[in-house]
Amino acid sequence: MISYYLPSESKIGVGYQVHALANELVRRGHTVDVFSPCAPVDGALYGHVHLPMSGPLRTFRFAFVMRRQDLSSYDVLHAHGEDYWMWRRRVPMHVRTLHGSCFEEALHVKGVKETARMLLLGLTEVLASLVADRTVLISPGTRRWTPWVRSIIPNGVDPAIFGRASPKAERPTVLFVGTWGGRKRGAALAEAFARDVTPRLPDAELRMVTQDAPASLPSGVTALGRLSDAELADEYSRSWVFCLPSTYEGFGIPYAEAMTAGVPVVATPNLGARYVTEEGSAGVLTGMQDLGHVLADLLSDPDRRERVARRSRERARSFELGAVVSAYEQVYRSGRRRGR
Asked: Which residues are in the Glycosyltransferase subfamily 4-like N-terminal domain (predicted)?
Protein backbone atom coordinates (compact mmCIF):
# COMPACT_ATOMS: atom_id res chain seq x y z
CA MET A 1 0.00 0.00 0.00
CA ILE A 2 0.99 3.60 -0.61
CA SER A 3 -0.23 6.38 1.65
CA TYR A 4 1.26 9.79 2.27
CA TYR A 5 -0.80 9.93 5.47
CA LEU A 6 -0.82 7.65 8.51
CA PRO A 7 -2.30 8.21 12.01
CA SER A 8 1.17 8.42 13.56
CA GLU A 9 1.67 11.93 12.17
CA SER A 10 -1.52 13.03 10.44
CA LYS A 11 -5.17 13.60 11.36
CA ILE A 12 -6.26 13.11 7.71
CA GLY A 13 -8.93 10.41 7.46
CA VAL A 14 -7.20 8.62 4.57
CA GLY A 15 -4.37 7.59 6.88
CA TYR A 16 -6.75 6.09 9.45
CA GLN A 17 -8.51 4.15 6.69
CA VAL A 18 -5.24 2.79 5.29
CA HIS A 19 -4.19 1.68 8.79
CA ALA A 20 -7.52 -0.10 9.35
CA LEU A 21 -7.51 -1.80 5.93
CA ALA A 22 -3.91 -2.96 6.24
CA ASN A 23 -4.44 -4.39 9.72
CA GLU A 24 -7.57 -6.28 8.64
CA LEU A 25 -5.81 -7.70 5.59
CA VAL A 26 -3.02 -9.00 7.83
CA ARG A 27 -5.59 -10.60 10.13
CA ARG A 28 -6.87 -12.47 7.07
CA GLY A 29 -3.44 -13.89 6.34
CA HIS A 30 -2.09 -11.40 3.81
CA THR A 31 1.37 -9.88 4.02
CA VAL A 32 1.08 -6.10 3.81
CA ASP A 33 3.65 -3.31 3.72
CA VAL A 34 2.70 0.36 3.77
CA PHE A 35 5.02 2.85 2.08
CA SER A 36 4.72 6.26 3.73
CA PRO A 37 6.72 9.30 4.85
CA CYS A 38 4.89 9.07 8.20
CA ALA A 39 6.41 7.18 11.12
CA PRO A 40 5.18 3.69 12.06
CA VAL A 41 1.82 3.49 13.81
CA ASP A 42 1.50 2.00 17.27
CA GLY A 43 -0.48 -1.23 17.06
CA ALA A 44 0.20 -1.80 13.36
CA LEU A 45 0.20 -5.45 12.32
CA TYR A 46 1.57 -4.66 8.86
CA GLY A 47 5.09 -3.86 7.69
CA HIS A 48 6.16 -0.25 7.30
CA VAL A 49 8.54 1.19 4.71
CA HIS A 50 9.53 4.65 5.91
CA LEU A 51 10.33 7.17 3.18
CA PRO A 52 10.86 10.43 5.10
CA MET A 53 10.15 13.71 3.33
CA SER A 54 10.90 17.33 4.22
CA GLY A 55 10.63 20.71 2.58
CA PRO A 56 7.94 22.10 0.22
CA LEU A 57 5.68 20.16 -2.18
CA ARG A 58 6.15 16.95 -0.22
CA THR A 59 3.13 15.11 -1.61
CA PHE A 60 4.25 15.71 -5.18
CA ARG A 61 7.86 14.75 -4.46
CA PHE A 62 6.69 11.60 -2.67
CA ALA A 63 5.16 10.47 -5.98
CA PHE A 64 8.61 10.62 -7.62
CA VAL A 65 10.15 8.76 -4.69
CA MET A 66 7.56 5.99 -5.08
CA ARG A 67 8.33 5.66 -8.78
CA ARG A 68 11.89 4.65 -7.86
CA GLN A 69 10.84 1.88 -5.46
CA ASP A 70 11.30 -1.78 -6.39
CA LEU A 71 7.84 -3.35 -5.99
CA SER A 72 8.53 -6.51 -8.00
CA SER A 73 8.06 -8.80 -4.98
CA TYR A 74 4.43 -7.75 -4.45
CA ASP A 75 1.28 -9.25 -6.00
CA VAL A 76 -0.80 -6.09 -5.53
CA LEU A 77 -0.08 -2.39 -5.29
CA HIS A 78 -2.96 -0.59 -3.57
CA ALA A 79 -2.38 3.15 -3.74
CA HIS A 80 -4.28 5.74 -1.73
CA GLY A 81 -2.43 8.58 -3.43
CA GLU A 82 0.86 9.54 -5.12
CA ASP A 83 0.97 6.75 -7.73
CA TYR A 84 0.26 8.86 -10.82
CA TRP A 85 3.81 8.54 -12.24
CA MET A 86 3.80 4.73 -11.98
CA TRP A 87 2.51 4.05 -15.48
CA ARG A 88 4.93 1.20 -16.25
CA ARG A 89 3.62 -2.07 -14.80
CA ARG A 90 5.48 -2.94 -11.60
CA VAL A 91 3.10 -5.46 -10.01
CA PRO A 92 0.52 -7.94 -11.35
CA MET A 93 -2.35 -5.77 -10.05
CA HIS A 94 -2.35 -1.99 -9.45
CA VAL A 95 -5.39 -0.65 -7.57
CA ARG A 96 -6.04 3.01 -6.80
CA THR A 97 -8.64 4.33 -4.36
CA LEU A 98 -9.77 7.92 -4.97
CA HIS A 99 -10.71 9.27 -1.54
CA GLY A 100 -13.01 12.01 -2.79
CA SER A 101 -12.26 14.54 -5.51
CA CYS A 102 -9.79 17.39 -5.28
CA PHE A 103 -11.64 19.08 -8.16
CA GLU A 104 -14.77 19.07 -6.01
CA GLU A 105 -12.85 20.29 -2.99
CA ALA A 106 -11.40 23.13 -5.07
CA LEU A 107 -14.93 24.50 -5.41
CA HIS A 108 -15.15 24.95 -1.63
CA VAL A 109 -11.69 25.99 -0.43
CA LYS A 110 -10.68 29.61 0.08
CA GLY A 111 -7.63 31.34 -1.37
CA VAL A 112 -6.05 31.29 -4.81
CA LYS A 113 -3.02 29.26 -3.69
CA GLU A 114 -5.06 26.50 -2.07
CA THR A 115 -7.49 26.38 -4.99
CA ALA A 116 -4.58 26.01 -7.42
CA ARG A 117 -3.11 23.21 -5.30
CA MET A 118 -6.44 21.35 -5.27
CA LEU A 119 -6.80 21.70 -9.04
CA LEU A 120 -3.29 20.32 -9.56
CA LEU A 121 -4.04 17.41 -7.22
CA GLY A 122 -7.27 16.83 -9.16
CA LEU A 123 -5.25 16.40 -12.34
CA THR A 124 -3.06 13.83 -10.60
CA GLU A 125 -6.21 11.92 -9.56
CA VAL A 126 -7.34 11.76 -13.18
CA LEU A 127 -3.89 10.57 -14.26
CA ALA A 128 -3.83 7.99 -11.46
CA SER A 129 -7.19 6.58 -12.58
CA LEU A 130 -5.68 5.98 -16.03
CA VAL A 131 -2.43 4.52 -14.73
CA ALA A 132 -4.04 1.96 -12.41
CA ASP A 133 -5.53 -1.36 -13.51
CA ARG A 134 -8.57 -0.78 -11.30
CA THR A 135 -9.75 2.47 -9.77
CA VAL A 136 -12.19 2.59 -6.86
CA LEU A 137 -14.36 5.47 -5.65
CA ILE A 138 -15.58 5.80 -2.06
CA SER A 139 -19.00 7.27 -2.94
CA PRO A 140 -21.12 7.82 -6.08
CA GLY A 141 -20.98 11.62 -5.81
CA THR A 142 -17.23 11.65 -6.44
CA ARG A 143 -17.77 10.11 -9.92
CA ARG A 144 -18.57 13.54 -11.37
CA TRP A 145 -14.92 14.18 -12.23
CA THR A 146 -13.98 10.60 -13.24
CA PRO A 147 -17.16 9.25 -14.89
CA TRP A 148 -15.29 6.32 -16.43
CA VAL A 149 -14.66 4.79 -12.97
CA ARG A 150 -17.43 2.36 -12.04
CA SER A 151 -16.23 0.58 -8.89
CA ILE A 152 -17.47 1.99 -5.57
CA ILE A 153 -16.27 0.66 -2.23
CA PRO A 154 -17.08 2.87 0.77
CA ASN A 155 -14.72 3.53 3.63
CA GLY A 156 -14.89 0.96 6.39
CA VAL A 157 -15.52 1.22 10.14
CA ASP A 158 -14.65 -1.50 12.63
CA PRO A 159 -17.77 -2.22 14.73
CA ALA A 160 -15.60 -3.95 17.33
CA ILE A 161 -14.13 -0.53 18.10
CA PHE A 162 -16.94 1.91 17.36
CA GLY A 163 -20.01 -0.26 17.91
CA ARG A 164 -19.67 -0.69 21.66
CA ALA A 165 -22.60 0.44 23.77
CA SER A 166 -22.13 2.46 26.95
CA PRO A 167 -24.27 4.86 29.01
CA LYS A 168 -25.03 8.24 27.49
CA ALA A 169 -23.75 11.44 29.08
CA GLU A 170 -26.07 12.88 31.72
CA ARG A 171 -26.22 16.27 30.01
CA PRO A 172 -27.23 16.90 26.35
CA THR A 173 -23.99 16.34 24.42
CA VAL A 174 -23.01 17.08 20.82
CA LEU A 175 -19.77 15.62 19.46
CA PHE A 176 -17.69 17.11 16.63
CA VAL A 177 -14.64 15.52 14.97
CA GLY A 178 -12.63 17.68 12.61
CA THR A 179 -10.78 20.97 12.34
CA TRP A 180 -11.77 24.29 13.86
CA GLY A 181 -11.00 26.12 10.63
CA GLY A 182 -11.31 25.21 6.96
CA ARG A 183 -14.00 23.10 5.33
CA LYS A 184 -14.92 21.17 8.51
CA ARG A 185 -16.33 24.44 9.95
CA GLY A 186 -15.79 23.70 13.62
CA ALA A 187 -15.76 27.42 14.41
CA ALA A 188 -19.12 27.92 12.72
CA LEU A 189 -20.58 24.99 14.67
CA ALA A 190 -19.35 26.43 17.98
CA GLU A 191 -20.89 29.78 17.08
CA ALA A 192 -24.24 28.19 16.18
CA PHE A 193 -24.16 26.11 19.37
CA ALA A 194 -23.55 29.16 21.57
CA ARG A 195 -26.17 31.23 19.75
CA ASP A 196 -29.02 28.75 19.31
CA VAL A 197 -28.48 25.70 21.55
CA THR A 198 -27.19 27.10 24.85
CA PRO A 199 -30.09 29.56 25.36
CA ARG A 200 -32.60 26.69 25.04
CA LEU A 201 -30.52 24.02 26.80
CA PRO A 202 -28.17 25.76 29.26
CA ASP A 203 -26.61 22.48 30.42
CA ALA A 204 -25.80 21.26 26.87
CA GLU A 205 -22.18 20.63 25.92
CA LEU A 206 -20.36 20.63 22.59
CA ARG A 207 -17.31 18.37 22.74
CA MET A 208 -14.87 18.98 19.90
CA VAL A 209 -12.21 16.47 18.87
CA THR A 210 -9.95 19.03 17.24
CA GLN A 211 -6.36 20.21 17.56
CA ASP A 212 -6.63 23.75 16.21
CA ALA A 213 -9.27 25.33 18.47
CA PRO A 214 -8.42 28.66 20.09
CA ALA A 215 -7.67 28.89 23.80
CA SER A 216 -10.85 30.86 24.49
CA LEU A 217 -14.06 28.98 23.70
CA PRO A 218 -17.76 29.78 24.25
CA SER A 219 -19.43 28.54 27.39
CA GLY A 220 -20.36 24.84 27.09
CA VAL A 221 -17.76 24.15 24.37
CA THR A 222 -14.83 21.84 25.19
CA ALA A 223 -11.84 21.11 22.94
CA LEU A 224 -10.52 17.57 23.46
CA GLY A 225 -7.45 17.62 21.23
CA ARG A 226 -6.36 14.38 19.62
CA LEU A 227 -7.79 11.09 20.92
CA SER A 228 -6.94 7.42 20.51
CA ASP A 229 -9.47 5.15 18.78
CA ALA A 230 -10.63 3.82 22.14
CA GLU A 231 -11.07 7.32 23.55
CA LEU A 232 -12.89 8.48 20.42
CA ALA A 233 -15.19 5.45 20.52
CA ASP A 234 -16.06 6.32 24.11
CA GLU A 235 -16.90 9.90 23.09
CA TYR A 236 -19.21 8.64 20.33
CA SER A 237 -21.01 6.24 22.63
CA ARG A 238 -21.60 8.91 25.30
CA SER A 239 -22.84 11.57 22.87
CA TRP A 240 -26.48 12.32 22.19
CA VAL A 241 -25.85 13.74 18.71
CA PHE A 242 -22.92 13.94 16.31
CA CYS A 243 -22.44 16.99 14.08
CA LEU A 244 -19.94 17.67 11.28
CA PRO A 245 -21.08 20.61 9.09
CA SER A 246 -18.41 20.34 6.37
CA THR A 247 -18.61 22.25 3.13
CA TYR A 248 -17.26 19.13 1.39
CA GLU A 249 -16.68 15.47 2.22
CA GLY A 250 -16.03 12.75 -0.32
CA PHE A 251 -17.30 10.26 2.25
CA GLY A 252 -16.89 11.44 5.82
CA ILE A 253 -15.58 8.61 8.02
CA PRO A 254 -16.77 10.29 11.25
CA TYR A 255 -20.37 10.09 9.98
CA ALA A 256 -20.04 6.33 9.59
CA GLU A 257 -18.27 5.97 12.94
CA ALA A 258 -21.05 7.86 14.71
CA MET A 259 -23.74 5.82 12.97
CA THR A 260 -21.96 2.58 13.92
CA ALA A 261 -22.14 3.79 17.52
CA GLY A 262 -25.86 4.45 17.10
CA VAL A 263 -25.50 8.23 17.38
CA PRO A 264 -27.83 10.45 15.30
CA VAL A 265 -25.86 12.45 12.72
CA VAL A 266 -26.59 16.08 11.89
CA ALA A 267 -24.72 17.36 8.84
CA THR A 268 -24.83 19.87 6.05
CA PRO A 269 -25.79 18.31 2.69
CA ASN A 270 -22.29 17.78 1.30
CA LEU A 271 -21.65 14.86 -1.06
CA GLY A 272 -20.34 12.50 1.60
CA ALA A 273 -23.05 13.22 4.16
CA ARG A 274 -25.77 12.75 1.56
CA TYR A 275 -24.35 9.35 0.61
CA VAL A 276 -23.59 8.05 4.10
CA THR A 277 -27.00 9.11 5.48
CA GLU A 278 -28.90 8.07 2.34
CA GLU A 279 -30.01 11.63 1.59
CA GLY A 280 -30.93 12.19 5.23
CA SER A 281 -33.06 9.06 5.71
CA ALA A 282 -30.47 7.78 8.23
CA GLY A 283 -29.52 11.19 9.64
CA VAL A 284 -30.50 14.85 9.54
CA LEU A 285 -29.29 17.20 6.81
CA THR A 286 -29.65 20.95 7.22
CA GLY A 287 -28.18 24.23 6.06
CA MET A 288 -25.83 26.24 8.27
CA GLN A 289 -28.46 28.89 8.92
CA ASP A 290 -30.67 26.36 10.75
CA LEU A 291 -27.94 24.17 12.23
CA GLY A 292 -28.20 25.36 15.84
CA HIS A 293 -31.99 25.15 15.92
CA VAL A 294 -31.93 21.65 14.41
CA LEU A 295 -29.44 20.51 17.06
CA ALA A 296 -31.53 21.98 19.87
CA ASP A 297 -34.69 20.36 18.54
CA LEU A 298 -33.03 16.94 18.28
CA LEU A 299 -31.44 17.17 21.71
CA SER A 300 -34.89 17.97 23.14
CA ASP A 301 -36.68 15.05 21.45
CA PRO A 302 -35.61 11.60 22.77
CA ASP A 303 -38.11 9.69 20.63
CA ARG A 304 -36.82 11.27 17.44
CA ARG A 305 -33.21 10.64 18.46
CA GLU A 306 -33.98 6.98 18.97
CA ARG A 307 -35.70 6.71 15.56
CA VAL A 308 -32.74 8.31 13.82
CA ALA A 309 -30.28 6.19 15.80
CA ARG A 310 -32.10 3.01 14.76
CA ARG A 311 -31.89 3.93 11.08
CA SER A 312 -28.26 4.93 11.56
CA ARG A 313 -27.30 1.53 12.91
CA GLU A 314 -29.02 -0.20 9.99
CA ARG A 315 -27.26 2.01 7.43
CA ALA A 316 -23.90 1.58 9.18
CA ARG A 317 -23.87 -2.12 8.31
CA SER A 318 -23.02 -1.05 4.74
CA PHE A 319 -19.74 0.36 6.04
CA GLU A 320 -18.50 -2.49 8.21
CA LEU A 321 -14.76 -2.92 7.79
CA GLY A 322 -15.00 -6.66 7.13
CA ALA A 323 -17.32 -6.18 4.15
CA VAL A 324 -15.11 -3.40 2.76
CA VAL A 325 -11.99 -5.55 2.95
CA SER A 326 -13.82 -8.47 1.30
CA ALA A 327 -14.78 -6.15 -1.56
CA TYR A 328 -11.14 -5.11 -1.99
CA GLU A 329 -10.01 -8.73 -1.97
CA GLN A 330 -12.33 -9.33 -4.91
CA VAL A 331 -10.83 -6.33 -6.71
CA TYR A 332 -7.30 -7.60 -6.07
CA ARG A 333 -8.22 -10.88 -7.76
CA SER A 334 -10.34 -9.42 -10.55
CA GLY A 335 -7.76 -9.15 -13.30
CA ARG A 336 -6.49 -6.17 -15.22
CA ARG A 337 -9.51 -4.29 -16.57
CA ARG A 338 -7.85 -0.91 -16.69
CA GLY A 339 -9.60 2.07 -15.13
CA ARG A 340 -12.79 0.23 -14.10
From this structure: 13-160
